[in-house]
Amino acid sequence: MNLDLLRELTVENPSKIVLLVMDGLGGLPHPETGRTELETAHIPNLDRLAQESMCGFTVPVAPGISPGSGPGHLALFGYDPLVFQVGRGILEALGIDFDLHPGDVAARGNFCTIDAQGVIADRRAGRISSERCAELVAKLNGFRVEGVEIVVAPVREHRFLVVLRGEGMSDLIADTDPQREGLPPLPPRPLAPEGERTAHIVSLFLQEAARRLQDEGPANMILLRGFSRRPHWPTMGEVFKLKAAAIAYYPMYRGLGKLVGMEPLPSGPKLEDAIASLREHWHRFDFFFLHYKATDTAGEDGDFQRKVLALEEADRAIPMLVEMDPDVLIVTGDHSTPAIMAAHSWHPVPFLMRARWARGDGCEAFNETALQRGSLGTFPAVHVMALALAHAGRLRKFGA
User: pTM of the entire structure?
Assistant: First the structure.
């Protein structure tokens, strides 16, 4: 979507837009039942909402491309993820309100488990507690080498932040996380000559981390990815004339919202927590991004039934959201995470939009089979924001 075009066409009015992102929403049929997670779950409220909505599927990046959470969300916010690219490290830093200095390079870290042969047995170290994460982070701090300070901060569960602070640091470093078990961690590799010194510093840090964590199983090693600096992009307020809020429990998603000018609001892990925050701040904002993580976590863990239960838990909170009666209500995901794949996938993502100026498509349910009848078909996720603005009466006519 062309942001300059939307900047030109957008007008202000008192309408409210709510975007609920159920992370990793889409799925694939279970081999024993032939039904996806959405088709298996008892979700009467989402089914009813689909009957009142325009429906279809979104493609987060491009056909066949499995997106990370960053690109998936940025597309939904109207920012073409092929143009607006950012590493995971900066998102984590913004999400925990870390005080970034000019020139800082940030990376997202995972505590992981490696076996006696140095092979990754668990990329998330059994999803250790946030309290245990903080204890281990304390063991990694205080490392300075060749004039570069390495600052480590806990995020949540097995996740942490690493910031490289010193002269000449570069973000042109490849990930050390191979993104799968059964392989050793990758060595830090420069992606360009200017990244060579940074790769050397990171290599020394990883050696020291391995020494300090060797007796701390299951979290006896670390993986790093998403080396990045903070970009400076046009905000949703500047482009869309929206006062926007991000309601997300996990820091990364708060960071995504902050990156495009949203004000982060407090939330707990459940959808009902996010909706309570929405209600409390209803009159302060025009646009609300609500994030629900449990669907993606279960999908990544390959736990089909837990993803079904997460969908059912979210469904029970949907009436609270509908009662707010926003002018535009969108329910979708940032990507698909089929439990049978235990990973993000390239499959189109279920989508519905209920709005005053939209008519229902006749879809009987909110699942991958029923939504194939939707009038929106399968379309790029980067067009979601334009659809939302139009149905909120916030876009004027283009051309004479």
Answer: 0.86
Structure tokens at 186: 């990758």
d(CA 211, CA 214): 5
How many CA atoms does the CB half-sphere of 123 hold within 13 Å?
18
**What value does the mean pLDDT of the chain take?**
95
Could you tell me if residue 390 is left (phi over 0), alpha (psi between -120 and 50 degrees) or otherwise beta? alpha
CA distance 38 to 350: 10
Instruction: Report the phi/psi class of residue 235: left, alpha or beta, with left for phi > 0 and alpha for psi in -120 to 50.
Output: beta
pLDDT in tens, 313-371: 999 999 999 999 999 999 999 999 999 999 999 999 999 999 988 989 989 999 999 99
Which tops the pLDDT comparison, 141 or 307? 307
Q: Where are the chain's structural domains?
A: 3-85+232-391, 91-228
pLDDT digits (tens, 9 = 90+) for 287-304: 999 999 999 999 999 999
Other Cβ atoms within 10 Å of 313 Cβ, number: 16
CA-to-CA distance for 146 and 142, rounded, in angstroms?
13
Using CA atoms, how far residue 143 sits from 163, 200, 220, 260, 287, in Å, is: 11, 14, 17, 33, 42
Q: What is the DSSP letter of 10?
A: B
The amino acid sitting at 258 is K
Contact 308, 41 (CB under 8 A): yes
How are strands ordered across the β-sheet holding 244-247? 263-265, 244-247, 287-292, 17-22, 328-332, 349-355, 54-59, 377-380
pLDDT above 80: residue 1:
no
For 221-243, b where at least 16 C-beta lie within 10 A, e where not — what string?
Answer: bbbbbbbbbbeebeebbebbbbe
3.10.129.10, 3.40.720.10, 1.20.1560.10, 3.40.50.300: CATH of 3-85+232-391: 3.40.720.10
What is the model's pLDDT at position 88? 86
pLDDT at 217: 82
What is the Cα–Cα distance from 375 to 359, expressed in whole angstroms? Answer: 10
Tell me the C-alpha distance between 147 and 156, whole Å: 29
